[in-house]
Amino acid sequence: MDFDKKISFQLPDDAFGRLDEEDDEKFYKIPRFVAHIDFGAIDAVTDLYREHLPKTGHILDLMSSFFSHFPDENTYSSVTGLGMNEREMFHNKQLDEWTVHNLNTDPILPFEDNQFDAGVICVSIDYLIDPLSVLKDMGRVLKKGAPLVISFSNRFFESKATSVWLQLDEEQRAYLVKSFLVDTKCFEEIKLIDCSPEFGDPLYAAVAKNIA
Questions:
Q1: How many domains does the chain have?
Q2: Distance from CA of residue 127 to its chain's centroid?
Q3: How far is it, in rounded angstroms, from Cα 115 to Cα 131?
């Protein structure tokens, strides 16, 4: 898929509503010790990180869970996870530390300004009800020039994905994510990538660099 179009969005008022509006803490209370994409897509995520993330430094895994998919050969100074289930993150062997935090009730990240050398959001952007606020604050906690890699697929919990995500096709979702990054005014050099494996789950990414 080539991402060379100019697409703009005018979102309806209910764009970020969800089929299940119960507290996210209830939904994520039970740990899911599984990968949410198949092996081919996982390899594609790892290749993205290998290409775009620094080989050292402090990395933020936003909306983290049981797996993070970082390359084993990279020697990061630290990897910090932020997610909804402590047991999942406790058993994630690639996390050095973690914090439980619901971004849908509080989009402000519990970290210092300019704390991280890179950030990732893996197959989770579709669950944010205020993605613009979250990504703006991501710009605050990332250092100047730090890369942000947002990956997404067609695999998700339908009841918790936002209405706009459910209504768009895969190409449109990529442009939607790009529009979030543009609207934050925190990121530059934004590019969309189709890194889908030949077989299995599709995998797309938005890669950008922090301006602040």
A1: 1
A2: 10
A3: 20
Q: How far apart are CA 96 and CA 124, in angstroms?
A: 21
The three-class DSSP label of residue 110 is: coil
Name the pTM for this structure.
0.95
Q: Running along the chain, 212 residues long, what does each successive block of 10 average in pLDDT?
A: 73 92 91 88 97 96 97 93 97 97 98 98 98 98 98 94 95 96 96 94 97 84
Q: Do the Cβ atoms of 62 and 138 come closer than 8 Å?
A: yes
- The answer to whether 92 and 64 have CB atoms below 8 angstroms apart is yes
pLDDT at 8: 74
**Residues facing 98 on adjacent strands:** 81
Q: CATH code at 166?
A: 3.40.50.150
Residue type, 165: W
Cα 170 to Cα 2, 8, 12, 14, distances in angstroms: 12, 15, 19, 20
For residue 81, the one-letter residue type is G
Please give the Cα distance from 32 to 139 (Å, whole number). Answer: 29
Is position 21 within any domain?
Answer: no
The label of the residue with tokens 């390899």 reads 43
The reported pLDDT for the residue numbered 125 is 98
| Domain of residue 197, residue span | 37-210
Within a domain: 29: no
Instruction: Give CA 123 to chain center in angstroms.
Output: 6
CA distance 94 to 109: 20
Paired sense of beta strands 204-210 and 147-152, if any: antiparallel
Confirm whether 121 is domain-assigned: yes
